[in-house]
Amino acid sequence: MLTYYSDDHHLHHGKCELIDGQLMPCFEKPQRADHILARVKQRQIGDVRAPKDFGLAPIERIHSKAYLEFFEGAWARWQEQGGKGDLLPFTWPARTLRRMIPNDLHGQLGYYSFDGGAPITAGTWQAAYSAAQVALSAQQEIANGAHSAFALCRPPGHHAAGDVMGGYCYLNNAAIAAQAFLDQGRKKVAILDVDYHHGNGTQDIFYQRSDVLFASIHGDPAEEFPFFLGYADELGEGAGEGYNFNYPLPMGSSWDTWNAALEQACQRIAEYGAEVLVVSLGVDTYMEDPISQFKLDSPDYLAMGRRIAALGLPTLFIMEGGYAVEAIGVNAVNVLEGFEGA
């Protein structure tokens, strides 16, 4: 299995995030990708390649031009204002406020974000842009006939909607890759999100569409981030009704409970008749993850990979979350090895 990766991810290294009422060091840090890359090489699962540059056009198929222009230029504007430290939002257009786009940088940042967990630094745009190119390069590998590929993306993407960043995510790598498959002639794409946190951005992007089936297994949003999306009764709207499936699970869920949800999701994907599968590969379901509450162990990720392989679909794995840094490489690569060895 080929892996695509870019050193540009090091350009994004937020100093802090707002969590539990405090500014704390970011859990999403460069060492995450470094450990996964080291494990890929150690296990010799395949060559590691640098991404090609497909430009902005495939990214603009998912993200609005206004959002991309804001994101790309935000750091320079912050520096022109004499800003120090990371750029973080502090005001959001809540339910009682108008959804206006102000002229002010901070007002726009609040408009284009949903939490305080996506700091913008000097290199954030380039890191996110390169991560999208990593996803597109791995997608192109499958479009050219490969059965599988791994996009080692950082920063992650599944919380980013068409014009909203948050949850460590800026550009939705999985959605960008899924759209690329469609633009190249595929008719039905499935996205399976196995991250501990619901992929709210991915759901929002495809919620009214039938050409992408979205299935997500995650912590119950009644108790877990992102709180405001990911409930079981969210089944899609309009043309997308019946193509969105959420499997929220209680805190403390172990492999047996999680695997039962995986089985249901895989059955939905098979019934849909997907031509290709995109996996949002988060391994923050691990029992020792510092910000998650499931109890999967490292061998469980081998079984996860085997079950995904049983679908028999060309499969693109795109890296999302996982914050137990010492174990992230083992767990992510276990999924790939389980898939390849099935």
Automatic annotation (TrEMBL):
This is Acetoin utilization deacetylase AcuC. Residues 28-337 form the Histone deacetylase domain. Belongs to the histone deacetylase family. CDD domains: HDAC_classII_APAH (cd10001). GO terms for biological process: epigenetic regulation of gene expression. Gene3D superfamilies: Histone deacetylase domain (3.40.800.20). Keywords: Hydrolase, Metal-binding, Zinc. InterPro entries: HDACs, His_deacetylse_dom, His_deacetylse_dom_sf, Ureohydrolase_dom_sf. GO terms for molecular function: histone deacetylase activity; hydrolase activity; metal ion binding. The keyword Zinc applies. Its cofactor is Zn(2+).
